[in-house]
Amino acid sequence: MHRFHSYPVRLDGTDPKGTREAIRHDFLAAFSLFESLFDLLKDERVFYRHSEPTRHPMIFYFGHTATFYINKLVLAKVIDKRINPEFESLFAIGVDEMAWDDMDNARYHWPAVDAVRAYRDRVNALVLELIDTLPLQLPITQVSPWWVILMGIEHERIHIETSSVLHRQMPLELVKPSAAFRYCEEYGDAPENGMVTITGATVHLGKMKSDPYYGWDNEYGSAAETVADFRASRMLVSHGEYLAFVEAGGYENAAYWDEEGAAFLERSGVKHPPFWVLKEGGGYSLRLLDREIDLPMNWPVEVNCLEAQAFCRFKSAREKRHFRLPTEAEWVRMLEMSDVLDGERFDDAKANVNFNHFASSVPVDTFLQGDLYDVAGNVWQWTSTPIDGYEGFEPHPVYDDFSLPTFDGKHNLIKGGSWASTGNETLRHSRYAFRRHFYQHAGFRYVEADALTESMPGNIYETDSLVAQYCEFQYGPEYLGVKNFARSCAEYAIAFTASTPRKRALDLGCATGRAAFELARVFDDVTGVDFSARFIQVAAALKERGEIAYERVEEGDVTTRQIHTLEAFGLQEAARNVQFWQGDACNLKAHFVGYDLIMATNLIDRLYEPERFLGTVHERLNEKGILVLTSPYTWLEEYTQKPNWIGGYYDKEGKAVDGLTGLKAILSAHFELLESFDVPFVIRETARKYQHTLSQMSVWKKR
Q: What is the DSSP letter of 55?
């Protein structure tokens, strides 16, 4: 369709030069396509508008994809210097309506568009330099620095889709037409949908680490599911087919909506799909990227999962048969019986993907792929399957919160891609999931099959061994006669603030939140911050529900279920004073200031730039505020490159420098050391294996 067209890059082969050139092209294509979307905004004032109340203004997304490159390259130690630390904090974290998402616009001071554009140019230049100079060995694996570059490219491609959805929700008078995005001009009456029998089989899900294309962590691993025979709608549900539901009062009839759907209706007040525009005098228009057209009855409808499920209940009631959304495995079975694949990717000559045809949907009877139309492409298809990890799932260490926070039973998979899908999104194994009330370029097809009996995913703390271990460390019983470490640290911090104000406290590296809850016994306002959303989601869920459950390893594969409550610890009331946020201690957002106490436990030897954190922490403390640090000084290049160690090395004169000496050298300009001593802790691995460690606590008072 236009200059942005590109295909996923193969990561194997014997031609490093060709692979390097392909990645360079892919990076430029994604970077340019993303920016071209923002050329649709009428003027710079629109960048500061919210097209959707639960999202950031558009300026955030304009900066976000660029800062992602820098933040991940720093984390992976591919680069050691930031371009703009303020931007790389401000634009770091998006919104998925998690408890720790920060939607208080008053906290944000958005920069000028020109400044963000200039920043994007600098990121572009840096990434291109890396692509041109980094050593390249094939195949590219997940431990390669090239994987991080590919991660940035694919992340930008995700935001090409999500930003284009937000553009379609922006008032039409705030966007301008663009010749770069040509829409389909073929539309008419809706074709009559029908049902096609899909023969059952055992479906194998997931892919191996040796797969030749970039993948997100949730795609790897394996699962097998036996799919029984079922019948699937020959076409995606069209506007015309869905209109019958709207005109029959489907949005007002409670019988078609489950509890979550009813709450969505009450909250949103919607009466029709999101991109339908009610015309004066009756009837609807369809909102595209940059214009409105008369509602094309033969195009696929775009709705959220709750609306799709409601339609299925409506159709079931009307026809006295059982219709529902397909499962992930049933969609894969439909894909296996189609002819849309070109190797591992959807063939964009046979499917409306990759912007190869239009920047819009096309009629639902355009692309026949075997017995079904649009098994892939046109619009994404909602499934009934909440996303979870396959057997063997492992989060990628550079982006460990890409998938894990969505394994909560609240995010359903969408499959097949849309007209705006590029890169990884056009591959057979791609897996993306959204909350059921979210909108994407997503519609659905229905299947006629037995009611589902599959179980919902468990809590992530039950499936994530690292998180479960931290839950046990912070909320489990005491072992070997050693007091609970998080509680001990909080009690020491409370004692050292006896003669200072106790209004606000910051717990950095709070993990699953125990110390933050303990501090809230005496502090009016406690903020817990951790880099990992895996930990933050546990703390936030515990604050919300008052209970935590996880599987504790006893021996080998044997586990026991553990349940702990805030009430049992006497923390139920204190929890009201606690809030949790995801953040980078080395590059915190500017509004984390004005604290009487800052506590950072076992954190500094896990930071990529401990001196940067220590050199600026005084700016976040009030006058005479208290800083409490603990560390076993376990310096590892896995976390901190040797030039950034502040202890555990020999200086130029051959003298050993320990951690406390390093702390004194950095902190003495702004702090007085009050005391230092050891605090032991025990981490339980199994019923018969424990880690016993001494962490040095140092207590500092701001001068």
A: S
Name all contacts of 49-52 with Cβ < 8 Å and 24+ positions apart.
49/170, 49/174, 51/166, 51/167, 51/169, 51/170, 52/166, 52/169
Q: What are 343-358's pLDDT values in tens digits?
A: 999 999 999 999 999 9
Nearest to 584 by CA among 511, 635, 629, 532: 532
- Beta-sheet pairing, 380-386 with 442-443: parallel
Please give the DSSP secondary-structure letter assigned to residue 503.
S
* Chain centre to alpha carbon of residue 423: 18
Q: Is residue 152 helix, strand or coil?
A: helix
Please say whether the beta carbons of 583 and 589 come within 8 A.
Answer: yes
Distance CA(678)–CA(613), nearest Å, equals 22
The 10s digit of each residue's pLDDT in 662-701 is: 999 999 999 999 999 999 999 999 999 999 999 999 999 9
Cα dist from 175 to 41, 42, 51, 157, 237, whole Å? 5, 5, 11, 21, 29
Tens-place pLDDT, residues 283-303: 999 999 999 999 999 999 999
Please say whether the beta carbons of 679 and 485 come within 8 A. Answer: yes
Closest CA to 549 of 444, 476, 633, 446: 476
Q: Which two tokens stand for residue 699?
A: 């207590």
> Is the Cβ–Cβ distance between 563 and 547 less than 8 Å?
yes
State the Cα–Cα distance between residues 632 and 71, nearest whole angstrom: 26
CB 702 within 8 A of CB 686: no
Measured between alpha carbons, how far is 630 from 508 in angstroms, rounded to an integer? 11
- Decide if 113 contacts 44 (C-beta within 8 A): yes
